[in-house]
Amino acid sequence: MDSILKIRAIIFDFDGVILESMDIKTRAFAFLFKDYPNHLQEILKLHRFHGGMSRFEKFDRIYRDILKEPLSQDQKVKLGKDFSDYVYQEILKCPFVEGAFEFLEKYSEKLPLFIVSGTPDDEIKSIIKERNLGKYFKEVLGSPLKKKALNFKILKEYNLNPKDVVFVGDSIDDYDGAKGAGIRFIGRIKEGNPFEGLNIESKIYNLFELEKIINKRKLL
């Protein structure tokens, strides 16, 4: 990351970047598709690889590409409700990614922070409210709009130059959404490296490392 390009705003994915909640959602997919044991590993692989994708788009892909079965709108709505019922209370009590709470406490007073999540908009807003995190973010946005569109919305509404904005995400969908909007990207890695072979600016394992990058490169 070029040190002359200062940061004027940071956009975060939520699951796997602010909260260690990706495993909860993996268990939810395993529960929803437990009646398809021969396809379960492929389903979970799709879910993990596309961590930033809307659950409803994942349902479409699972039925179309893996199960090769039709998926009615009623089925999709029920899957979405069952998924929310499974994960919601668990996410309200799951731990922060290491350094995330400390970063929000310190840097929300220094520059605007945003959430762009693949979680449905009403659900992510409810989670933010229940966990008392709203005070840290200028705006919290979720699906059905894709991340590229949500990033463009933030750039336009807050009059931000994409070169002055960093997106911190943990999936290829986060990367695509950031790059599609011309935004700089830092990848959070927990297990494996979904960004292998991609030209990303930095990789971090926790948000203490994000602060180190900011300080070392004098990005504020």
How would you explain this protein's 3D organization?
The model has no long low-confidence stretch (mean pLDDT 94). Strands 3-2-1-4-5-6 form a six-stranded parallel β-sheet, with helices on both faces. Helix 1 (22-32) packs antiparallel against helix 4 (73-93) and helix 2 (40-49) packs antiparallel against helix 3 (55-67). It folds into two domains: 9-20 and 95-216, Rossmann fold, CATH 3.40.50; 22-93. Helices cover 47% and strands 14% of the residues. With 220 residues, the protein is an alpha/beta fold.
Work out the number of β strands.
Answer: 6
Q: Report the CATH superfamily of the largest domain.
A: HAD superfamily/HAD-like
Rg from C-alpha positions? Answer: 17 Å
Order of helices and strands: EHHHHHEHEHEHEEH
- Report the span from N to C terminus: 13 Å
Strand content: 5-15%
Q: Look at the structure and give the CATH class of the largest domain.
A: Alpha Beta
* Strands side by side in the biggest sheet: 3-2-1-4-5-6
The backbone outline, from C-alpha atoms, is globular
How much is the average pLDDT? 94
Instruction: Provide a count of the helices.
Output: 9
CATH topology of the largest domain: Rossmann fold
Number of domains: 2
Residues in helices, as a percent range: 40-55%
